[in-house]
Design a protein that fits this description.
By secondary structure, this protein is of the alpha/beta class. Helix content is 46%, strand content 14%. It has helices at 3-19, 47-59, 77-90, 115-123, 140-144, 152-159, 163-178; strands spanning 37-42, 64-69, 96-101, 128-132, 147-148.
């Protein structure tokens, strides 16, 4: 596909899915406040998974990260991403899913603009945070997901509460209660 054809296909799919109600705000789920297990769908190599692990465990060392490696570009990637989302749901493998990949060209990010991925995200019973590409990249996955993060690190911050903040809040409540 030429770049222009991809862009046209992107616009057409975006319009069609929007009309079908896949981007509707009322369909979006809340991200759990204290998730124990973060499911991550991304490539097993590369900085994305390392960033997510670093940020998550720094914020809460007790959080468990379950990586389901999927190809994030190329032929057949969209089907494998969709299957990964379905598998995580079927087996209830996480409290929240982060769907992530680093930046890239429109061609590289294309699997996240496929209808099969959009439908898998929409049908997911587990909340999904989409962190695909750079801040300026918007994929169809971003529009369907329950929450969009500008970067994979930001997705980890949105998914994992800072345990120090939680403890501080609890102490404040305890003191108030005592008074």
């Amino acid at each position: 596909y030429k770049r222009q054809d991809l862009y046209t296909r992107y616009q057409e799919l975006k319009k069609r899915l929007e009309q079908q109600g896949l981007f509707e705000e009322e369909h979006k789920m809340k991200i759990p406040m204290m998730p124990r297990v973060i499911g991550v769908l991304t490539s097993q190599t590369g900085s994305v998974i390392r960033d997510i692990i670093n940020v998550s465990t720094r914020r809460n060392p007790n959080v468990y990260i379950r990586l389901l490696p999927v190809p994030v570009q190329g032929e057949g990637a969209a089907e494998k991403i969709a299957a990964g989302i379905e598998f995580m749901n079927e087996k209830k493998l996480a409290d929240v899913i982060i769907l992530a990949r680093g930046g890239g060209s429109l061609e590289d990010l294309w699997p996240f603009n496929e209808e099969i991925v959009a439908k898998a995200i929409y049908n997911s019973e587990l909340p999904i945070i989409s962190a695909v590409g750079h801040e300026t990249d918007f994929t169809i996955a971003d529009f369907v997901a329950d929450l969009r993060a500008p970067t994979p690190s930001a997705a980890a911050e949105l998914a994992v509460p800072n345990i120090a903040d939680v403890e501080l809040k609890l102490n404040t409540y305890q003191n108030r209660f005592r008074q």
